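Working notes for the structural subgroup meeting. M.R. asked for a predicted model of this chain before we commit to crystallization trials. I am recording the input and output together here so anyone reviewing the notebook later can reproduce the run.

Input as submitted:
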Amino acid sequence: MTRQFMLLNIALGLLLAFLVRRQGADSDTHATTPQPPADAPQHQSNVEGNSVRAAFVVLVRNSELFGMKRAMRQIEDRYNSRFNYPYVFLNDVPFTEEFKVETAAMTRANVTFGIIPHEHWSYPAWINKTYARECRQKMSKQGVFYALNESYRHMCRFNSGFFFRHPLLREIDYYWRIEPDVEYSCNIDYDPFLYMHRNGIKYGYTIALHEYPETIPTLWSTVKDFIALHPDFVRHKNGYKWLSNDDGASYNGCHFWSNFEIGALSLFRSPEYLEFFDYLDKAGGFFYERWGDAPVHSIAAALLLEKKELHWFQDIGYYHNPWTNCPLDKESRLRCHCDPAKSAVHHYWASCTKEWVELADGTNLNNSSISDPAKEITH
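Returned structure, recorded in token form:
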């Protein structure tokens, strides 16, 4: 009996030593900081083995490091730890070593860091800087948000017409925009990139809002002038019903809130969109007013794409101050911690979400015919 007890103790000791060595090896693996590659990101295949050339695209400042880490921790825990899509971080100034090391430590996926070309984050030659400053001061007196902020205008112009041209995105077909301090309240158990690729979807959103009219006083008239010159730009005439309440005479401000967007870069790289952006850019509204990338993206998507090519990711729980998207179905409560009663879709200011879903084919918010991506893509 004593001999058996001794043998048991020896066996337990060997097992304990093995487990300690194994834990130490795993800890070393987790502690290793991935080194950002010098070239464009390489996508690691998802759990289904399907390769989608996609990446998270992040425009962020060095000062937003901790907000960025919070957002990354959430998207990794909720989704990307299973899919390993790469991150592309962009900034108009070089990233600090602290930013690089600490963000790279948040994920096992590839990370790359790029600087925005000067010509994509500066005043173009045709902008009158003196007049632009006067316009900012006038808007400030009117109480317009970010009225005096020049960097905000450069950001909107960059996101409207240049982010998809960055060299680090040359080999990328789909992007998922992420910003610091956003929250994801639901587990995402399928691959939205793969879902979009399989279903021919070119733009996805979670929240659609009304824009502040004082930021875009001449945007719609400029759009109408462009369409008069290029009538073929409008492929989806029903898009007018979402963008306007008076048959296109004026813009109702509806736009997809672009701090969350998942899209096919082919939309923005298309000749039609490039010509559209160039016309808007020459008009000067990004600097003389405060045109945002959200209405620019949204007007183009609503008129260029068929309804089936745009998708409301109602199943993705998302929060960006002050609005949230929370799934409304009871099943989602098993994988989400958000309150459906607080979802933006119930608020008038976010009524554009419901209005897009109900456009054209009469689908309504409570209709079970709204596609469930998780049921179409099983893992």
